[in-house]
Amino acid sequence: MLDPNEAQWLTVSDLYERGWTDPIIKRLPAPTRGTNPHHKNSPKAVRLWSLEDVMRLENRPDIRAQLERVAGRRAGRAERRRAQELQRQNRAFLGGLALEQAFDTQALETMTEGDRTAMLLVRRLHQAILSALYDTQPVRSIAEAQDGLRTVMEMTGADVRHSRYLKNPQLLASCAPWLGRGETKRERSLHNLLQKGYTASLLRVAAVILYEYAQRGEPVPAEQILALPDFPVRKLMDSSLYQIYLVDFIPAMIRSQLSDLITVDPKDEYPEARMMQRRFVIHVGGTNTGKTYESLNRLAQAESGVYLAPLRLLALEVQESMLERGVNCSMLTGEEEDIRPGATHIASTVEKLDPHRVYDVAVVDECQMIADRERGFAWTRAILGCCAREIHLCTAPEGLDIIVRLIESCGEAYEIEHHGRKCDLILVDQPIALEDVQDGDAFIAFSKRNVLLLAEQLRQIGVPASIIYGALPYATRKLQMERFLRGETRVLVATDAIGMGLNLPIRRVIFTRDRKFDGLHNRALRPEEIRQIGGRAGRFGVYDEGFVTATIDSETIWQGFSAPVEPIRQAMLGFSDLVLRVDHDLLEVLQVWNSIPAIEPYKKMPIDRYIFILKTLQECGLALDKEQSLRAATIPFDEREEELMDYFLLYCGQYLAGREIEWPRRGKSSLDGLELYSQMLDLYYSFCRAFRQPVDLDWLRTEKENTALQINELLVRELSQKGKSCQVCHAPMPISSKFRVCYKCMMKRKKQSHIQMHGKKSG
């Protein structure tokens, strides 16, 4: 059965999502049957169409017109649904606005006596009902309910023994004239609805409890009250004041405040950029086409400028390049900084852009990352909000359309420069053996474990390798790259991190896997990823040709190398600091912000990480204010790593207590332990900077350099010809092993320990 990957084949569901209808689908070539690319484990075969055929048909004018009409109809239906939802929210908002007054002590003090009586009536009845429903001690519950109702009766002047009151509970409705009041028809309708629903339920409950109280003169068990046929439990649960206030009114209030603060069109959040006459130069090309090089030449000529990188290693590389050209350039990332006195330029990661600072020239690298789920918002922010007179955007071809759309929405001028490769890139669509390694090879794996295992396999056949993967400290990555550049190692073993602009003399890019875990799913590589990584082969000036191949026979790689790449259709959108001005809990504000749909062509970034951190802070009783909470939630660290999270919470507690932020403690001297310690140092620095706490930069710099050197020495020593060995029998061991002795010696020790223990028991 055909097992295509999701990047090259589309199911009928995919076509429907693109706006296709059955008549249009019939115009495609006959489908292939194969495994559903979205459900690899499903044995059921489905119809599949190639992406190339779909895109060819979509480019026809008549088909494009049909798809636009379908999209228009769908947009109309979606708009009607949004209007209905908005109407419901408005009704909830108006009702909540009235009901909120019953819980506002200051508002009650300014009301007339009649209105105040009505508000207190609803408030006391509501509190009595909640007490009766949710308290685990029935006697106390009913006693509190009785006390509340007695207070209500005293306020309204009613006599609990008055039979007319019990027979006609609607008399109490006259004590709440505000429920039937409203200036507009919509308001009156809503108030009537509330009166018939929730208020009527309150009155029925009051009548039941009062009746029992008057008849027996003693507390009634809560179970009996809840079991009475007239007790409207479901109605109270469905339309209680608490639900109306919390579920409808609070989000509506937040939504209203957000709409007042945050503009509908994201471009309008950057008024300083809108007041400038910016000019864009879009550099379009694949990997190794020189687009970034030409942009940096222009940056070096400018009186002031900023370079925005996807990686801090690239920011450091550009800073060093600028300094070599005689340009005074600082460097700023989330984990470190090198601010030089009198610097006219700065190289930073894209998230660190200051949208209020004006530059002559800006360079934004790897702009196709604008669609990245976690970080794409930073590229959107840079394009819309960077205050530079001339902005150079470097992107892969799939990013061109969305970039042009954003620039045109700002009404600004742009030009497009296409860049081609200066040396040929050749696909070798036959798998190679590991033993066929050549100098200048780069083996690509997609996890730290696979990188280390592959490096160990190369060591065993006598091939020293440099290593690059995500958890490796940046200083160690640089040391490993320098070993490769100097020829101390013959090959490079890396994750897909090398696809991001790192200039290395690579002759062949060799894939060892055709799938990767992207944080959500273990999926097949996409054509754009294969090209981005494979394009690193064949550096101009070093090799005349570059080659792309694999150690596995993979149709994903062979076909993906030349498969059409879909253009990016949406730009990721982040939330603004303006959320701090909304007068509600930050957690609630972010959740409401996330529920508000973004306009095209934007898509809101996932905020799961922020929600998790904010909830954890609340659960731990760390009472940071809103501005402090947002600062804490945006600190870059891996919140899934338990020890890092413990240090983060410790630092928050020390900050609130006014204590000095303590240095992290070094743990194990293993590879994992040193990498974790390096991340702790980054967290320490980032937290202190975010909360303006003093940092011992000399100590920190020394610790980071020593840790990076230790990791590098560990990799060099254990990937040398001798490799890592057992401390008992000196047998070779894989570098990825967490133990100091081999499995054979470990089992031998356990056996000896068991014999000794057994002998002691026998004695």
Automatic annotation (TrEMBL):
SUPFAM superfamilies: P-loop containing nucleoside triphosphate hydrolases (SSF52540)
UniProt keywords, alphabetically: ATP-binding, Helicase, Hydrolase, Nucleotide-binding, Transit peptide
Reactions catalysed, as given in the entry: ATP + H2O = ADP + phosphate + H(+)
EC top class named in words: hydrolase
Any matching Pfam family: DEXQc_Suv3
A GO term for molecular function: RNA helicase activity
Helicase C-terminal domain location: 415-576
E.C. no: 3.6.4.13
Protein name: RNA helicase
Organism the protein comes from: Butyricicoccus pullicaecorum 1.2
